[in-house]
C-alpha cells in the first residue's frame, strides 16, 4: 500500500474503559476485516490490549486515558484528523479523569464526528463506514 492509499484509509479512534476492554477486543476481532482497512488510534492500555490479540492492525496507541490519552484524541478531532470514535464507556465506575472523558465527547459533538459509546451503536457506525467504503469502490 503506497502513501496515498495509506492517507485515504479512514481514521478511527478506539477507547475502552477497563470493564469494557474485553468487549472491545472481541468487537475488533469480529470485525477484523473492516478494522484492517482503517488507521486506528487508541488510548494506551486499550491499544496494548487490542494489538496483543490483533498484531497486524495499523494501530497507534497514545497515552493512557488518565494520563492524557483522551485529550490527545480530542486534539486530533479538533485538528480534523479523526473520522469516527468508538468508545466503550463504563457508566458504573467513577473515573478520576472524568473531565477529560467529557471534554473528548464534547469535541466529538462540536466537530460532528460519528461517536459510538456502546457496542450496538458501534455496530451501526461500522456498518455505515463499510457501506461508504463499498460505495467509493463502486464509484
Ligand atoms: O481511561 C480511558 C478512557 O477514558 C482508557 O484509557 P486506557 O486505554 O489507557 O485504559
Automatic annotation (TrEMBL):
GO terms of biological process kind: methylglyoxal biosynthetic process
EC number: 4.2.3.3
Keywords tagged on the record: Lyase
GO cellular component terms given for this protein: cytosol
Catalytic activity, as annotated: dihydroxyacetone phosphate = methylglyoxal + phosphate
Catalytic site: 70
Domain MGS-like: 3-139
The keyword Lyase belongs to this UniProt entry's keyword annotation: yes
Residues binding substrate, per UniProt: 17, 21, 43-46, 64-65, 97
Matches recorded under Pfam families: MGS (PF02142)
GO MF annotation list: methylglyoxal synthase activity
The UniProt record lists the keyword Lyase: yes
Family of this protein: Belongs to the methylglyoxal synthase family.
General function of this protein: Catalyzes the formation of methylglyoxal from dihydroxyacetone phosphate.
Listed name of the protein: Methylglyoxal synthase
Lineage: Bacteria, Pseudomonadati, Pseudomonadota, Alphaproteobacteria, Hyphomicrobiales
Amino acid at each position: 500500500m503506497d502513501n496515498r492509499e495509506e492517507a485515504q484509509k479512514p481514521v478511527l479512534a478506539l477507547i475502552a474503559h477497563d470493564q469494557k476492554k474485553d468487549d472491545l477486543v472481541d468487537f475488533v476481532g469480529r470485525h477484523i476485516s473492516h478494522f484492517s482497512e482503517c488507521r486506528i488510534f487508541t488510548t494506551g492500555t486499550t491499544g496494548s490490549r487490542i494489538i496483543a490479540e490483533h498484531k497486524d492492525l495499523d494501530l497507534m496507541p497514545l497515552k493512557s486515558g488518565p494520563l492524557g490519552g483522551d485529550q490527545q484524541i480530542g486534539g486530533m478531532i479538533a485538528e480534523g484528523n479523526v473520522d469516527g470514535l468508538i468508545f466503550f464507556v463504563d457508566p458504573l465506575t467513577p473515573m478520576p479523569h472524568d473531565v477529560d472523558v467529557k471534554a473528548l465527547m464534547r469535541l466529538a459533538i462540536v466537530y460532528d464526528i460519528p461517536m459510538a459509546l456502546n457496542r450496538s451503536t458501534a455496530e451501526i457506525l461500522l456498518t455505515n463506514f463499510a457501506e461508504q467504503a463499498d460505495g467509493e469502490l463502486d464509484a
